[in-house]
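Researcher: Sequence recovery benchmark, item below. Answer with residues only.
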């Protein structure tokens, strides 16, 4: 346990150093935007990892909460001229309320049935976005979403926005680590391992699953808020079924039940399409092949796989 605490503190120190170095020394705006997108995707994957990796609850509709965060701030700022900073709490409250209402009946399911239930929810939200075109812009999407600014700092500057996104992410990282190291975290792991046994031992499984589902939805909504104000244009295609699958893939590839797995998985799945552009027609084939190789040789994800490689190398010395 002590080694794990030291490891996590070292990882946080390295992460903060790398973020500061990247923010101050990288001048290329494309690289800054890509790193910002990695931060947003990591926050999205981190929320799902808390739900799926730690609590063992499958969600195939998580892109719906990402959409709720994005569209709520987009509609309030473009249609009602509200400040983005006022739209943020509205987006979070709406995502939390929807997650609470949806979670009560859905979390009674388990395994594949829970996955199908959340998949249906995600599809309903996407259809609502497409059909409610007077506010959402329908299939064409919404344009003209304002960038973030404050009296002291303009976050329309890509570098400032990069620091904002990573500061928010690091705060969620620390909060998630504290939760997982607490009694609540141990109870969530117990639910993941054996829900019936946890219930017998006095864990309020129903209440805990609902709370982590709501927290996960709020984190997805924060990601959606940041994404909408970075891209300034959103459309339903960004939040469809494939988006939900991509988030799940980030969690699985990075490593379940690991907050650092969210970072590795989101980084890999954000960077791969950028690296593979030059392969033109073979892009998707190589993309799938890389994911297959990772899962064959590192079935527990990148985080566990890299730790195993390090420990094997260390034992040979």
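Model:
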């Amino acid at each position: 346990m002590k080694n794990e605490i030291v490891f996590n503190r070292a990882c946080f120190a390295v992460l903060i150093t790398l973020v500061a170095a990247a923010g101050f020394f990288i001048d290329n705006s494309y690289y800054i935007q890509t790193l910002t997108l990695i931060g947003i995707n990591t926050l999205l994957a981190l929320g799902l990892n808390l739900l799926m990796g730690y609590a063992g609850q499958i969600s195939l509709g998580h892109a719906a909460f990402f959409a709720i965060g994005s569209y709520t701030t987009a509609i309030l700022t473009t249609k009602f001229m509200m400040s983005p900073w006022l739209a943020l709490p509205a987006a979070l409250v709406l995502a939390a309320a929807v997650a609470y209402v949806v979670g009560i009946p859905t979390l009674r399911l388990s395994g594949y049935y829970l996955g199908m239930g959340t998949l249906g929810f995600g599809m309903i939200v996407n259809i609502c976005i497409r059909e409610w075109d007077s506010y959402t812009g329908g299939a064409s999407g919404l344009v003209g979403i304002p960038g973030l600014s404050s009296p002291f700092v303009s976050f329309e500057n890509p570098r400032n926005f990069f620091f904002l996104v990573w500061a928010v992410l690091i705060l969620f990282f620390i909060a998630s680590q504290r939760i997982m190291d607490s009694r609540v975290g141990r109870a969530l792991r117990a639910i993941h391992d054996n829900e019936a046994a946890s219930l017998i031992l006095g864990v309020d499984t129903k209440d805990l699953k609902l709370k982590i589902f709501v927290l996960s939805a709020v984190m997805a909504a924060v990601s959606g808020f940041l994404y909408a104000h970075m891209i300034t244009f959103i459309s339903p295609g960004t939040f469809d079924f494939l988006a939900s699958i991509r988030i799940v893939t980030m969690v699985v590839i990075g490593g379940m039940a690991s907050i650092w797995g969210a970072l590795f998985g989101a980084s890999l799945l954000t960077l791969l399409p950028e690296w593979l552009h030059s392969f033109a027609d073979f892009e998707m084939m190589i993309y799938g092949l890389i994911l297959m190789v990772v899962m064959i040789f590192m079935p527990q994800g990148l985080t566990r796989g890299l730790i195993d490689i390090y420990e094997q190398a260390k034992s040979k010395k």
